[in-house]
Amino acid sequence: MLLRLVPDNTKIKFMWLRKASFPLSIVLVIASLAGFFTVGLNYGIDFKGGTIIEIKTDGPADIGAIRSELSTLNLGDVQVQEFGASDDILIRVEEQPGGETAQQSVVAKVRTIFADDNVDFRRVEVVGPRVSGELARAGALAVAASLFAILIYIWFRFEWQFAIGAILTTANDVVITIGLFVLLQLDFSLSSIAAVLTIIGYSLNDTVVVYDRIRENLRKYKKRPLTDILDQSINETLSRTTMTSVTTLLALIALYVFGGEVIQSFTLAMIFGIIIGTYSSIFLAAPFLILLKLRPDALSSKDGDDEKGAKANATV
User: Fold this and answer.
1) 282/12 Cα distance (integer angstroms)
2) Which of 11, 92, 108, 226 to pair with 158, CA 20 to 30 A apart?
3) What are the sequence ranges of the domains in the chain?
């Protein structure tokens, strides 16, 4: 490899560092859960319900000016973004108290803002609490189903300790990322669910790479202490892990800086999630195997049974 962020043959004692990484993660997880149940998430219109208005302006629209004018209507959370071309604008207004009549008044008030402009109102939709509740349940089910699929897959491919370790590592990343949304009160919408699912996939990928190297080394060094094998495996994959993370972060930082306000919450969550996912893959995934009492000879004995079965079949 022409470019290396981490030198070859590092000998960092990661298993010793678990004395700090475990308490740090526990504190972050507890703080995130406490914030979630006390402060709560700043749910977007996708989950709270509201009114969606799509308009087409006469020429490129000034998003900042439209947002400023709409803020004078005192409608609460109002989101304005381009919807395809620069003259296609999507306006989202949070649900107003007062039932259906109040929602219709939102449209009337927005129309007054553009009364003197040549604006075409292409679409008006009201997202009710029932629809938003269904979206919330679907998002939660998507995250839960992905975690369950991870458990089954890794349990089938590795030992049960690896499966539980991967779930704990991934759950750590998800909970702490949710904590970021709570702390900064970022808008939590369907795109946020997409960010969480992407973080799950990224974290899992890094974790499986580490676990695969651990499995190889467990088969190769059957008499060595487990902590030495885990340290060696993480050091051997450290260059790959950091290189993948840095290149991904460079792209995400560019999106955050130049992508505009619409996707800033999404990209900020992704940036934070990549950092947390890299941290957990290095400092948590392997130490969990010690916590779960993985025996160094577990894979070797299993391989031995497989080899005996293969020889028996060959003889038959």
Assistant:
1) 11
2) 11
3) 14-41+132-305, 50-127
